[in-house]
Amino acid sequence: MPVTMQDIAKGLNVSVVTVSKVLRNQGNISAATRKRVLQRAKELNYQTNWIARSLVTRKTFTIGLLLPDFTHPFFAEVAKAIAETVRAQGYHVIISYFEEDPELERNEADALMARQVDGLIAASAQSRPDLFEGIQKRKVPLVLIDRPIAGVQASFVGVDNEAIGKLATNHLIAKGCRHIAHLRGPGIGIAAARLTGYRQALKKHGLTASSNYVVGARYVDTSGYSAMRKLLQLDPIPDGVFCYNDPVAIGAMKAIVEAGLDIPRDIAVVGAGNVHYSDVLAIPLTTVDQGTTQIGKQAAELLMEQIDAKGKSRVKRVLMVPKLVIRQSTDRSPSQPAASALESVQQKARPVART
After folding, report:
1. 7 vs 26, 44, 331, CA distance in Å?
2. pLDDT value at position 352?
3. What pTM was estimated for this model as a whole?
4. DSSP symbols for 274-302
5. N or C: which end of the chain has fewer CB within 10 A?
């Protein structure tokens, strides 16, 4: 016979209600009592009967997480923060990913709804709001992360992406860069916002935002590498590059080094995301921290508020303030004359231009 909460309560001379609160990590229970209950549950090898619990509470104690790619460091860190936050309230996360394919995303969303998740957090690739309007009509709590969708009246947690573009570009300008390129992200709104921030920073300082200096690089290191090789064919080649994210920046740095150029003296590089390995690269990467862990934590907390709310909860929009993290990839000498630095870059780049 499976162990019940009554079995735990009998052994400790406490009520079943107390045992239930401890196992759900709820209620004002003393630390000593909580420790005794958890120890006894472990000794008896107690396993929660989720089916019975769902029948009583009408909850599955699961939330769905829709991600374009859970191998990407940004989304992996977000997922970790979400799981850690909801676990404390007795919830588990079911992760589905859709490889930036809107149709596959719809199928994965339908599968999560079929599992009757109690809420959904999504970093979506949808260009129209109808998928999430349908989910909301079913009264499933919803929080969007990273990528807002026009027309969806749902809480959102992300970062000011125009500010990321401005921060990165302004930093390169402050380091003496005058021919600044941008490796653009995929065809989604946040990539466009970072591009806008880049252009605004150049305009503010009277620098030209040449279309030749903006190359699509999507969001992975291999595409960053290919895009940077295209930039190295230009005359003059860039002396600074703002990359859509850190993986793109890492690919760009590989191409620069292979071309025989120096980072940051010849070309300074800035990424975005501050992924966990950015500071241990051969050339530590200057990047813009977008509060990845906080995005996951805030999104989970907003979703739990909606799940626990008795009535309709207020839609909230939370934007993290990005912060520049300066490392070696932009550590140029401020005394170096821009003209002589550019001449050095052009001389080194000539063999690359012929390939």
Report:
1. 20, 9, 64
2. 36
3. 0.79
4. --TTTTSSSSPPBEEE--HHHHHHHHHHH
5. N
